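Re: export button greyed out
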Amino acid sequence: MLAKVYVTLKTGVLDPQGKAIHHAAETIGYQGIEDVRQGKYFEIRLNPSLADDQARTEVEKFAHDVLANPVIENYRVEIVR
Amino acid sequence: MLAKVYVTLKTGVLDPQGKAIHHAAETIGYQGIEDVRQGKYFEIRLNPSLADDQARTEVEKFAHDVLANPVIENYRVEIVR
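Workaround output, generated via the alternate export path:
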């Protein structure tokens, strides 16, 4: 069983890394790119004996406590069998 | 128009950051987590006048040339209207 966790900065939080990537894109000639925001992505392999709701609870807690900083970041959990 | 780009390490490429997160998870008592791999996630705002296939071509090239290192990383592009 696999969990995918997406962590993104909340709207309004400055993203200097994304800005740097956007600036690089403009410099080397990508015209269609208007803004870039960088987030994090985690693939978590879970014990297959966990039930779906147990798995979701455990990963939600892990994302909230460890992977994301809930003050400035949002996170989303997806469970894949 | 929004593009989402997911960058992950290829299978077999060592992921010390993921290993460190996994180790932390074990230490603080998450029993169900068997492995963690960390990737990157980008949200790219595109010029809305681009056609879907133009947008995909531009973002695929950008992901290949700038966001990912194709020697050790895979990437996946999703276009959202």
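Chain A has one domain: 2-80. The button fix ships in the next patch.
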